[in-house]
Amino acid sequence: MSEATGRSPVEVFAELQQAFAAGDPNGIAAVLHPDFEIEQPASFPHGGRHRGLAGMGEMGRRFAEHWDRQIADPVVHACGDDLVVQVTTQTWTSKATGRSATVDVVELVTVAGDRIREIRVFQQDTHALLATLGEV
After folding, report:
1. Pairwise CA distance, residues 38 & 107, whole Å
2. Measured in Å, how far apart are the chain's first and last C-alpha atoms?
3. Is pLDDT of 5 > 70?
4. Hey, which residues does 122 pair with through a beta bridge?
5. 57, 78, 67, 56: which is closest to 103 by C-alpha?
6. What CATH number does the domain located at 9-131 have?
7. What is the phi-psi region of residue 109: left when phi exceeds 0, alpha when psi lies from -120 to 50, beta otherwise?
8. CB of 16 within 8 A of CB of 25?
9. Residue 101: beta bridge partners?
10. Distance (Å, whole) CA 30 – CA 102
11. Listed residue (105, 88, 93) closest to 67, CA to CA
12. Are the C-beta atoms of 114 and 5 separated by less than 8 Å?
């Protein structure tokens, strides 16, 4: 529970999800820590470690060049005082080939105070997702 706001890490993460769902860039910025980082597998066109709101935006732009995505069945778990784990089932469809793959995705979300400090993303089968692009 954050001493500053009384919100749990799960509540802080839920605020980020709501801001994304609403397409609210100010809401997204408000919940991200000043030193925010997000990391995706380096093998992806949008992969690597991205810093700040601008880095997240660039990562999203690069992802959107290649895939459309459907996210289903989110399950969120609190793990201690500063970690949230989200598991989703995601279907990625290549814009270039029309091929799709469905995988589970685990996100480790670190909360510092009342802000999201880091998100590390682990796709179940990166090979299957890259294969939708016709490159593997």
Report:
1. 10
2. 44
3. no
4. 106
5. 67
6. 3.10.450.50
7. beta
8. no
9. 92
10. 32
11. 93
12. yes
- Residue 3 pLDDT grade (very low, low, confident, very high; cuts 50, 70, 90): low
Using a 10 angstrom Cβ sphere, with 0-12 exposed, 13-18 middle and 19 or more buried, the burial of residue 36 is buried
- Domains in the chain: boundaries: 9-131
List strands edge to edge, sheet with 67-79.
Answer: 48-51, 32-40, 115-123, 100-112, 83-94, 67-79
pTM of the model: 0.92
In the chain, the percentage of residues whose pLDDT exceeds 90 is: 91
User: Which tokens belong to 115?
Assistant: 């802000």
Tokens linked to 35 = 């030193």
Tokens describing residue 91: 């279907």
Asked whether the predicted pLDDT for residue 33 surpasses 80, the reply is yes
- pLDDT over threshold 80, residue 1: no
Tokens of 42: 């380096």
Q: Which residue type does 38 have?
A: I
Q: What is the DSSP string of 74-120?
A: EEEEEETTTEEEEEEEEEEEETTT--EEEEEEEEEEEEETTEEEEEE
- Gap between the Cα atoms of 117 and 136, Å rounded: 33
